[in-house]
Amino acid sequence: MKLSDYVATFLKDNGVTTVFGYQGGAVTHFVDSIYKIEGIKFISNHHEQASAFAAEGYARVSGNIGVCTATSGPGATNLITGIGSAYFDSIPCLYITGQVNTYEYKRNKEIRQEGFQETDIVSIVKPITKYAIMITEAERIKYFLEKAFYIAKSGRPGPVLIDLPMNVQRAEINPDDLVGFYDCEEYKRKIQIEVNIEDVQSLIELIKKSKRPVILAGGGIRLAKAEEKLEKLIELTGIPVVSTLMGIDSVNNEHKCYVGYMGAYGTRYSNLAVANCDLLIVLGSRLTTRQTSSITDSFAREAKIVHVDIDRNELNIKIKEDLSIECDLDLFIDNLNQSLKDCHYKFDFSSWICKINNYKKMYPSFQSHKNINEIDPNDFMNKISEMLHPNSIVCLDIGQNQIWASQSLKLKKNQRLLNAGGMGAMGFGLPSAIGAFYARSNSKIVAITGDGGIQMNIQELQTIAREKIPIKIIIMNNNALGMIRHFQEMYFQSNYYGTIDGYSAPNFAKISEAYGIKSFKVSDESQMNQLKEKLNDDESYVIEVELKSITYVTPKLGMGRPIEDQEPLLDRKELEENMIIDMYKS
Q1: Confidence check: pLDDT of 370 > 80
Q2: 160-165 and 93-99 beta bridge pairing
């Protein structure tokens, strides 16, 4: 059996239905093998970065590993941004890169290059992968494939890379003679993290003593597939829940206990809830400065902080934690729920939830816009929520569009929101939507992007047109790079270099027409009814939303302030009246 055929069969046998990639000389054997096998589809993108983002979107929606392939040299290096995105957001992806024949590969480190397009991609990506290896012995292919799959999906998930030289791809192997990773002592020595029942009981005692608890749901909830168990925990305790950017779709946004997205660009009411809580239960969040602010001693400063994460390296390193628990979230929450049911304790946090609801009324994330001749972005996102099909997946790009959507979209229980968090790469939205479609083709897929982000991977409109993928692409067009423009306004005397001055956006309607995709422009409130029809039909659309060139994301946290003190700043007396605890004094 040809080795590349074995790899394709292995992927199929492990539940992979789609491989994304771009054809090239050093990967032709593998791509040919994918095309020959039934039950697995090769989607040819028009840039390797887009293939990497598509694989990430596929992995996040399917719950399985995402697979992407590229040729040697420039093909492999074009994957790097997508690999970094999967690494920082803990998404299990396998990247299979082609490589020159082993007999052409450079013979010593002093030589820059020997074979055409030869590049040491393994050394380049090691800092942003959980595992990367070039396979030089064909008879070890089963071992390395199984090991890569295991590492990508176990513990804290993440990307892996296998580099396949051309002569290895075309080598003949006998599958019956291959030794796998699961047969080896290396696998058998793996230790499973178990729940410490003392940690569970300690947390229950803290909840019993608390008057103002808050659960902070991070991206780890989805990664652990613990959404249902989190909802059960909320039902058992009635504890209000805020989410990080990556955790927004881990909770039904319509649940009475859901507060909203918190952090530097989070809603003011969510941040006030965190600031005033007396117990913060952090589930699967890294607690970056986008959640805590740069002055970490101000964060939840009068609360007991409990942090549960599968990665011990994220525990008790940024803020002082009262209880740090290394454990799989699904396992931990399940044990916590069982113990809560067994103890028959009745929790009542109704007065605390009433206080939070008052925050919501005072500082809503959107307001009905009175000027019908222009679009207010946050109000637009709220209206989109009402129009979306219950089985929708929304994929966000990076920029102001991402924050408007994260603040004001209200997701129903089965809807998904794909946010790029750690790498935060513009160009993520459109290709991740393609990956999401191939993971769950019966869903309505919506990509929300900006005029800047869409141009990063605009070539994927051809993939959508060719494959007839019914994605709705909403472009929030302010003819500027709005996030950085605001930054320049605040700190660089409104010198809009590269954001307005030296920046431009094309005619998106004409570009859509060139790709053979229908387009529609929304410039005022009167067109919203037409938009609802287009969001729910079975065609592709480029929907351009016309905005003013000067747009803002508010509220926004400035440097050197606690999370409850976002800009535009509240009157000091008003802020103090909102605080149950003392105002922060630097």
Answers
A1: no
A2: parallel
